[in-house]
Specification:
Elements (H helix, E strand, L loop, with lengths): L2 H14 L4 H7 L8 H8 L4 H13 L3 E4 L2 E4 L1 H10 L2 H11 L8 H4 L4 H6 L34
Antiparallel strand pairs: 1-2
Helix pairs in contact: 2-3
Length: about 150
């Protein structure tokens, strides 16, 4: 892959890795327009300010549009979602063979003595993250760490 190809992939990934960007697109994948409020409910847990920011960014990237009935994914966005649909079965296979690892952050490491960690019971697995319609979120169960540009909520 050329450096120009890498730059294009990196540019797309930068746009998609912003907090909730993929969830906004995923919530609109069925092609039905959604109002701001409905989209906020479909995404779940997103503040109005963050949703406004993601909508603006996705519209600038030509992945999202707004019409009289609400927000929809553009043909370019539909193409992206079609290509990303293969990620879900891969993620399920991968997650089945790679259990989540719990990491202790440096700031909280001194709060719990190592002996207490060794004696602590293993928590029950969290239920799979799903959309309000019961569909799995893309990357459900994956640990998401916001980048430095994702501090707007």
């Amino acid at each position: 892959m050329s450096s120009k190809d890498n730059a294009a992939v990196n540019q797309l990934f930068e746009r998609l890795e912003c907090r909730y960007a993929m969830r906004v697109l995923w919530a609109l994948r069925d092609g039905h327009p959604q109002t701001f409020r409905l989209l906020q409910d479909s995404v779940g847990g997103i503040t109005p300010n963050t949703l406004n920011t993601r909508i603006k960014e996705l519209r600038e990237a030509s992945l999202l549009d707004h019409g009289s009935d609400g927000y929809t994914v553009t043909p370019l966005g539909q193409d992206l979602l079609k290509r990303l649909s293969d990620v879900q079965p891969f993620a399920l296979r991968w997650a089945a063979t790679h259990p989540r690892k719990v990491t202790v952050r440096a700031s909280s490491a001194s709060a719990v003595p190592p002996a207490a960690l060794a004696q602590a019971p293993t928590p029950a697995p969290a239920p799979a993250a799903t959309t309000p319609l019961g569909d799995p979120w893309p990357g459900a169960g994956a640990q998401v760490r916001p980048s430095s540009g994702d501090l707007d909520d």
